[in-house]
Specification:
It is a single chain. Helices cover 70% and strands 4% of the residues. It has a two-stranded antiparallel ribbon. A hairpin with a 2-residue loop joins strand 1 and strand 2. Helix 2 runs antiparallel to helix 3, helix 2 packs across helix 9 and helix 4 packs across helix 8. The radius of gyration is 21 Å and the shape is globular. 32% of the residues are buried.
């Protein structure tokens, strides 16, 4: 029982800190409803591993070093603010000028692979050439289980783009250093030498649970995002969140 107490305390503190509308969570949800399982899994790993590294570094005392060099956080703050404002403007543009195509997503990537194989086999048997990629500059279409899946431009992200963007959202945000390195690190060290690492395991588990639930659970919202109006509303919310956080970083809040 005494072992569970620091674990549960770290889990609860980590969840209380991370479960909020923020840039990481907003972007991960976008990936969950618009990208494939591999891209979502990579983004979840980036978020969870980044939090784990920062929390452990805070327990080891790196937070004290960060507090002694506030200039570094100032640089991070303005870089992060510029990125957030840019992303927010792009999201606002998507909300104001949405694509006319609705996104229809298959339930599982395995179905996509099997359907693509069947289409290729039929095309080969019938002597029908595969569809050319030049069907239009503003849409990407594939055949899934006998129907067309249309992905609006800017909705899906490649692996490289998703990972790079998530890394910037995570590491170019000065609040993540204050929350993990300084706050969680100091709270963990207050547990004493015997319990601080159990508390740290709980805090790291909180990040893994939350990002995993948001990334993989968010895929359940895909039918809702088949409607263009949903994308307009979501991109509007994203624009407000990104621009809001960007402004707060500029003013130093």
């Amino acid at each position: 029982m005494t072992t569970l107490l620091p674990l549960l305390s770290g889990l609860g503190t980590g969840l209380a800190l991370i479960v909020a509308i923020g840039v990481q969570n907003t972007y991960l949800l976008r990936l969950a409803v618009s990208s494939g399982m591999r891209v979502v899994a990579a983004a979840v790993v980036v978020c969870a591993v980044s939090d784990a590294v920062l929390i452990v570094a805070g327990v080891l005392g790196v937070g004290a070093v960060v507090e002694r060099f506030p200039v570094a956080l100032v640089v991070v703050r303005f870089v992060g603010a510029a990125f957030l404002v840019t992303y927010g403007v792009l999201a606002a543009r998507r909300a104001l000028r949405p694509s006319t195509d609705a996104m229809r997503v298959a339930d599982e990537a395995a179905d996509d692979a099997r359907a693509a194989t069947r289409v290729a086999d039929h095309a080969a048997d019938d002597g029908v050439p595969e569809p050319a990629a030049g069907g239009g500059p503003d849409r990407t279409a594939t055949v899934v289980a006998g129907r067309t899946r249309t992905v609006p431009p800017g909705q899906a992200a490649t692996m490289r783009t998703a990972v790079a963007t998530m890394l910037v959202f995570t590491w170019a945000n000065p609040h993540v250093y204050l929350d993990t390195l300084v706050f969680l690190g100091s709270v963990a060290n207050q547990q004493g030498p015997d319990d601080r690492w159990l508390w740290t395991v709980g805090a790291v588990a909180a990040s893994c649970l939350w990002f995993g639930a948001l990334g993989f659970g968010g895929r359940l919202l895909r039918p809702l995002f088949a409607k263009p109006l949903t994308w307009r509303v979501f991109d509007g919310v994203v624009a407000v969140v990104m621009l809001g956080f960007g402004v707060l970083l500029v003013v130093g809040a």
